[in-house]
Amino acid sequence: MDKRIAIFDDNSKRRESLEMLIELTDGMAFAGSFPDCSNVINDVEISNPDLVLMDIDMPNVNGIDGVIMIRKKYPDIKILMQTVFEDDEKLFACIRAGADGYILKKAQPQELLNAIEDALKGGAPMTPSIARQVLRFVGSIENKKQTEDFNLTARETEILSMLVQGLSYKMIANRCFISLPTVNSHIQNIYEKLQVHSAVEAVTKAIGNKIV
Q: Which end of the chain has fewer CB within 10 Å, C or N?
């Protein structure tokens, strides 16, 4: 079944371009587009997406507030943030709000499609420049945290390390010689032990607590 993608963006031309891109991509279906998050819960309920492409800077109700509202009622929907900026404050506000990934609008169409597919599989897609900012951020706070024992198994620690390196679920499965369902099972156990809900949160916590 095609994965349904909803778009929140105040630029009508960009919404139309994204709609066309999604409709022309095998395995994806356009679920709806909206100019801001003023009615985000109703919009999500009607469009029933598997993933939301969320602009950060929109009038009325912005994307960060939109993520917070979606997360509270629909914790399983994947959310991929888009912006023209590489703004530290907004980036980490998105992570704290529960976004699954963060990509710049200047990314090429195939990069965006890859990020969508990665997020749908449970990954934490980020452009390299964004990933570097995350690493700098957690590096600046890691000395303020005490190392905790999360009781991860050797295999879970290995898989978490690969998530930190930015590997996709498929790449992890190939490297560990295990199936995708097994990777999913390990990652769900990791989330439970770390008390997180997304790969971005897991990566941030792993580095901040020096788990890997």
A: N
Token pair of 54 as six digits: 């969320």
Helix 199-208 / helix 128-141 crossing angle, nearest 10 deg: 40
CB under 8 Å to 180, separation ≥6 — which residues? 169, 170, 173
Residues 69-106: pLDDT tens digits? 998 889 889 999 888 766 666 776 777 777 888 888 88
Cross-strand partners of 55: 82
Exposed (0-12), middle (13-18) or buried (19+): which is 41, by Cβ within 10 Å? middle
Distance in angstroms (rounded) separating the CA atoms of residues 190 and 159: 9
Is pTM beyond 0.70? Reply is no
